Amino acid sequence: MSHAHDNSSGSPIARAFVDARRAGRAVASYPGVQPGSMDAAYAIQDEAIAAWPDDVAGWKLGRINAPHDARFGAGRLAGPIFSKAVWTAGAAPTPFRVIDGGFAAVEAEYLLELGETAPDRDGWTADSVAPLVARVFTGVEIAGSPFAGINDHGPAVTASDFGNNAGLILGAEIADWRDRLAGLTCSMSIDGAVVGRGGAASIPGGPLDSLAFLLNLLHRRGRRLEAGQLISTGAATGVHDILAGQSAVADFGPDGRIECVAVSAGREPS
Ligand SMILES: C=C/C=C(\O)C(=O)O
């Protein structure tokens, strides 16, 4: 679904986040009344998606911890990943932009590639989504927002600004994932120091449960998940804050490493 160059956003919050992201500048405080529910947050997110000049290439999932999970009625949140912010990892560290005075973090993740457009229905489970997945990759989610406090005011605030996503680095394809996925482990280092260890088992219900959550959510939001889209299934080692000038390495053992480096943001390339 393409929303490129649709500038019809009526939400001042969506407009403020979109403008700040495009200009590469921070917003000092939340730009409006904070949404009180996930539905209100996704309404803002939908307006921002419509105003962002790029296509949705996939979705990120993030965990909602207690006590917010009970308060907001969900264990995860979702946000769009845009096509111009998906990079393929190479031998050299992949650069990514961070907004000075905003929020930025790196997260080692397992990425699912959808093999077929998912039927538009509710009731998905980790078991029923498995046949939809064509390939699984290692990855690094770049979490990022112009608002430094994006994770400090509960999940509805986080979800309202693209779910705190600023991009995705695509790593190696994971061979034999149907047999191996549940047992995969990884670590994350920043500037040479290990900042987190974990794996697929760190994600509640596993990566396929993240996909099931997303499909059920998108059904309620009137959106579809399409063949070829990528799902970043949630932080496997934690959400690791990073500053411009710092480097990170996600180590997936036999499935390879992803190196990246944070650089100071300018305007989004148009
Ligand atoms: C920054 C948001 C949180 C996540 O992305 C996560 O928990 O995976």
UniProtKB/TrEMBL annotation:
GO terms for molecular function: 2-oxopent-4-enoate hydratase activity. The keyword Lyase applies. Coiled coil: none annotated. One of its GO terms (cellular component) is cytoplasm. The keyword 4Fe-4S does not apply. InterPro entries: Fumarylacetoacetase_C_sf, Hydratase-Decarb/MhpD_sf. It is an enzyme of class 4 (lyase). Its EC number is 4.2.1.80. Keywords: Lyase. This is 2-keto-4-pentenoate hydratase. It comes from Brevundimonas alba. The lineage of its organism: Bacteria, Pseudomonadati, Pseudomonadota, Alphaproteobacteria, Caulobacterales.
